[in-house]
What does this fold into?
Amino acid sequence: MDQPFTTIIEPFRIHSVEPLRMTTADERALAIERAGFNLFNLHADDVLIDLLTDSGTGAMSRDQWAAIQHGDESYAGSPSWFRFEAAVKELFPFNHVIPTHQGRAAEKILFTVIGGAGKIVPNNTHFDTTRANVEATGAEARDMVIAEGHDAATIHPFKGNMDLAALEALLKDRAADIPVVFLTITNNSGGGQPVSLANIRGVSDICHEYGIPFFLDACRFAENAWFIHEREDGQSDRDVADIVREIASLADGMTMSAKKDPFGNIGGWLAMNDDSIAEKCRNILILTEGFPTYGGLAGRDLEAIAQGLKEAVQPDYLRYRIRSTAYLGDALDEAGVPVVKPIGGHAVYIDAKALLSHIQPLQYPGQALAIALYRTGGIRSCEIGSVMFGRQPDGSEKPAAMELVRLAIPRRTYTQSHIDYVIEVVTAVARAANSLPGYRMVEEPATLRHFTARFEPVA
Ligand code: F0G
It folds into this structure.
């Protein structure tokens, strides 16, 4: 927009509203205790500002709701499917697009086909479900982000980049055991940090030199493309959609959760160029998700995603989106709260290891902080640290590389005054951080333990 003012406004106005329920501190103390001190176990009505995830929680647009009215629920060959497929291929022109009910279903299908014991899947940083789906096949999920990506305080414009030298060394040594190389854009578990176009090209070149397919975990592709537009030499004049198409052209396939950048409340897809892998994936799809023209989604969901994909790459939206995430991060930084810097795309990550240095990693400083944010202000966040990643495939427990608390921002959902409230609450909790207790886990499931584990405060 061509205008002389600096305030970046929400590029939309509110069309229908949902009430928020206020609670008292006593009510919240009781609710979190009943939930076994696990924020996933809360009743969402007891949450005031829900920053648990940006997944499926965005506000749909007028045009998405209108598109839903065009949903055609034909079992096979629905026009909604063709609109969905065309919208995906407009940005990601892979030969095969396989719809799934969400991202992890795409992961499960792909790794069932190409994973297996003795194999290694490199990624900048695996998201939790991606790691779990790789490991479920007996393969090893190996994180290979650049060194800067492990250090919360180091400033780097593309902290999600893959360590190309390490990748090349691994491929030289083990190419036969590597069925695919993945890049997660943006790098969610590493702080929502982007990957540069140059790095994506570098990964592509190395993979193709060794004849190994290169896939994107592209949930936040539009946010990543916006960072490329803003930060990478020679990219600022390009259309965001063009940057996305170039990224896609460097890869051989992708897994996708449409619950993130495409503004779906549900949905995902798997896409690739390889005919024989696609055929195997479609066979599993039919067993587990549905016919290949709907894959676990209703026609109306396919329509909402097709429209959402068009909105996801609009510059006014992306400028607002990235700027409003930074607004929260910058304010916390100025208030002295340690956050991962630079601020990522979809979330602000508080460095709980730095803020709660009196709590040792295996008493879960991130969990302790997340509980305090809820108790103090009704804010629900998500631990991304030793609770999420501490349990090893061999059964041992070891501290994660970072102890983070993620404040994920649902798309187009909260206003600036909601975020000002979050800033106030986080700042107050941070001031009293050294009085917070650590936690011990008293119940733990076999995999993805953070979703259902129960905790108790350590005296
Ligand atoms: N890959 C990444 C990078 C993700 O962030 C997610 C989900 C998935 C894959 C799986 O997609 O949820 O549709 O099955 N991330 C959500 C989050 C849950 O809160 O970050 P899904």
